[in-house]
Batch of 3 targets.
Target 1
Amino acid sequence: MIPAARVQAAVEILDIVIAAARDDGPPADVVVSNYFKTRRYAGSGDRRAVRELVYRAIRRSGERPVDGRAAMLGLDDAAALFGAGGHAPAAVGDGEVAAGERLIPGWIEGELSPLVGADEWPALLERAPLDLRVNVAKADRDSLLAAFDGAEPTRLSPWGLRLPADSQIEQHEAMLGGLVEVQDEGSQLIALACGATGAVNIIDLCAGAGGKALALAAAAPEADIIACDTNRGRLSKLAPRAARAGATIDVRLLDGGREAEMLDDLRDQADIVLVDAPCSGTGTWRRNPEGRWRLSPDGLDKVVALQAHLLDLAVPLVRPGGSLVYAVCSILGREGAGQIADFLGRHSSWAVHTMPDGFGEDFGRVDGGGRLLTPGSDRTDGFFVARLKRSC
C-alpha cells in the first residue's frame, strides 16, 4: 500500500470506530483486526502503519469526531495526502475542517479527581507497557525475569513484570503453563489491597473474567474464593484460566435484579468482599483511547448509581470485623472518593480501614477515603481503591 492508501484505510477504520463508540459497538482494536481480516493484500508493515495512524487520530481528539475524514485531517502528514489521486482520500472540500484537538472531553474535566492536574493529562494517553502478574503459587518473579525479552520488575507490585508494549507472549511457555497472566500493575495492587492470607473466605462480587480472583488465589492458596458476576460470557473465561493456573475458585452466575436473593446464603460469611465495580474506564484511556468517545453525562450517572448499588449489595456479605475492598479503573471523583464518602454516610457501622502490610505508603496518593493511582504519578493504569472495615 502506498502512503495515501494507508491514509484512506485509516479513514475507513475510523468511520467504524466512531460508529462503534456512538452505538456501543466493539473496541477499536477489534475493529482494526476485523478490517484487515478481509484485506489480505495488506502486509504487516501496512497494518502497523495504518494502526498507528488510527491511534494517533484517536488520541488527538478528546471529543468524538463527526467522521473518519475529520479525525484524519487533524494529522498534518496525513492531511497532506488527501486528493493525491489513486487510492488516496478525496480532496478536502470547501468548509471541511479537522476534528478539534484536545486530550480530555470538556464535560469530563470537572469530573476529574482534584489530584489529576492538567500536567498529568498527556500521560493518560501514552501507550501503555505490557504488564504480567507472576503466579506466585507456581513460580517466583526472579526466576521468570530472564524468560521474557526486555522484562523488568514492576516498581510497586511484588508480583509484576513489565515488558515493552509490542511484546508477543500469547504462545510463551510461561503463559501456556499458567506461570503468568496479563494484568496491569495497578490491577495487581487492588488484589494486594485485599490483604488475603491463610484460609480466608473471599467473595469477588464483580469478577468478570476473573483476573483479580486469580491473583487472590495465587496470593492465598488456602483461601475459599467465590467469583460472582451477571455476565455469563465473561465469567465463563475464568474456569480454563483457573485450571491453567492451578487455582481452585468457585463460580456463581448471578441473575441481574436477583443478586441479593442469590447471595443470601453467604450473609455474614466473607472475611473479604472485593467490589471491582463497572466504571467509566477513564483510568484505561492509554489502552482504549476511544473510550473518551463512549462516555456521556447520563452514562456516568448510571454507572455511579450502579456502583452504589453494588457496595450496598456487598454489605450484608461481610462478617463482623471483615473487610470490603472497593475499586474502579477510574480517575473521576464521583466514582472514587465521592463514592466512598456517600457509602460511609449510608452505613454508620463502617469505617475506612488501613491498607494491609505490603501495600506501601507510596502506592498512589491519598484521595478521600482511598488511594488514587495514575499513569503520570505511578506508571500504572488509573485506579481508585479503598479498604473499608465492618465494626465487630
Target 2
Amino acid sequence: MSHTAHIPSHRKPRRSTSKLAVRAGVAGGVLSTLALAGTASASPSEPVAETTLEMPVLDLDLAAEVSSAVTTAAENTRAAAVTGELHAQEEEARTGAAAEAKKAKEDAQKADAEKKAKDEADRKAAAERATRSSSRATLQSASAANTQGSGTVTAPATGSAAAIVNFARAQVGKAYVLGGTGPSSFDCSGLVQAAYRQAGISLPRMSQDQSSEGSSVSLSALQPGDILYWGSRGSAYHVALYVGGGKFVGAQNPSTGIVERSLSYDRPTGAVRVL
C-alpha cells in the first residue's frame, strides 16, 4: 500500500489557474520528500505504519483582498451618498428659486394693481375737484348776475327789511352758542328770531319751523330780509338772513361765530319770504 493512500484531501474551492498551479507544485514537492523518507527508514522485517498527514494550506492573503473589497464598497457608498446629497441640494435650490420667482411675480402684480387703484382714485378725485370748481364758478357767476341784475336783489332795504338787516349786521362778530337768543350770543334760529322781532314780527324758535313760514322764493329773486335755509323746507337744520348784495348773515358754528358771507361760501337749499 502506498504511503499516501490515506492522506485526506484538503482541497478548497478552485480560485484561479495561477493559484492552482502554485498549490500543485508545493504539494508535489511535499509528496516526493515523504516518499524518499519512507523508503529510507522502512525495514523489510517491520511492517510499514500508515500515516495520515495534513496538506499544507496555502495562505494567499485573502484578508487583504476582503479588506480591499470592503474599502472599495465603502468608497462607492460614500460617493453615491455625496451624489445623492448634491442632487437633493440642486433640487432644493431649483424649488427655492421657483418659489422666489413666483412670489416676486405675485408682488409685482399686487403692486401694479395697487398703482392702478391709486391712479383711478387720483383721477376720480381730480374729476370731483374739477366739478366742484366748475360748480363754484357757476355759483359765483350767478351771484354776480344777481348782484348786478334786477333791482329786487340790489335795492337797499327799507322799512321792516331794513330793521331786520341792520340788526343782523350789528351782531356780526358775536359768539355762537347753541340755544343762544342774545344779546351777547346766538344760535342760527335765535339770531333770525331776534332780527325779526326788531320788525315786530314773531317767529317760531326752531329752524325747522322758521323754514316753513311765509312763502317759498327762488334763490335768483332774493330780497333783503328773506330767510335762507339749509336742508329741506319744514325740516331745515340751519337758517340765516339774506342782507342783499349776494350776501347773508348767520350764526354759523362755535368756531366762526356770527359772520357775513357770500352765498357762494355755503350755498343755501332754499328761501322763504315772510315780509
Target 3
Amino acid sequence: MKRILSVFVATLLSVFSVNAQKLENSTLWKIEGNGLEKPSYLFGTIHMTCDATIENDVKKALDETTQIVLELDMDDPTMQTKMMSGIYLPKGENIRDYITEEEYKTIDSLLTNHLGMPLKLMENMKPFFLSTSLYPKLLDCPMQSFELELMRIAKEQKEDIKGLETMEEQLEVFDNIPLKDQYADLIRMAEDNLEYDKTNFAKMLKVYKDENINEMLAMMDDENNTTVAEHQDVLLDQRNENWISKISEFAKEQPTLFGVGAGHLAGEKGVINLLRKAGFTVTAVLE
C-alpha cells in the first residue's frame, strides 16, 4: 500500500508542465559525455496506466546499467510513515475552513461514491491526498505502474533502487501551493464526478503510448486545473533544476537508469535540455 500511495503522489507531481522546444518522440534517452565512463539512460514514465509493459529498448537499457533511480526511493521502509505525517492539515483545521457547505456536500458525494468513505472521516486531510486517492478511478482497468515494474526488475537483477527526492521534499511541494488552489481543483473534480479528468487522462495515456513527450507538455498546460496553471514553477521547473546535479552524481558513480515522469523530459526547462546545458550529450533512443 505504501508504494501505491507514493505512486499517487508522484502522479500528481508529474502532470504539470510548460510547452517548449520540440524533441523526438521517445520516452527513452541516452546520457553520455561530460566525464561519464559508460552511458546512463533517462526513461520517461507514466505513473499510473493500464499497461506497464517494459519495452525491449528499455530492457536493453536496464541490462546496460547497474542501478535504478526514480523520483522517489519507493523501497524506503520509512516512506509510509513519512508520508502519513505530511498529509494532514495544520492542527485544529479541517476542510470546512476552506469550502462552503454546498461544496462540502459535493466532495462528500464524490468520495462516498468512488471510495466508499464519507468526507467526515477525511476532513483533516490535505486536498492533494484526497485528490490522489481518487486517481485510480480515472482508469477503466486495474492500475499498473512503471515504477513498480522497474522496482521488480531491479530486485530480480539485485540492483539498488534510489531516489532523486525524499518523501519530505515531495510533500513540501504541495505545502508551497496555496490550499485554496488545491481545493479549487478538488471541487472541480467533484462537480462533474471525475468526467473531465477521466477524458483528459485517457488522452494522456494515448499520447504517452505514442511517446510524444512534446504533446504531453502541450496538453498538461491546462487552465482547467488551477494548481497546474498557477504553480508550474514549484511543481516542475524547480524540481527539474534540482535533479540535474543529482543525476550527474549518480551517473558518474555507475551506469544508471533514471525513471521520471515523462512530463519532466521536454521543454526549455525540461530534464533533457537542462542535462545538455550541463554538458551531457542526450540523444533519443529510437528503436
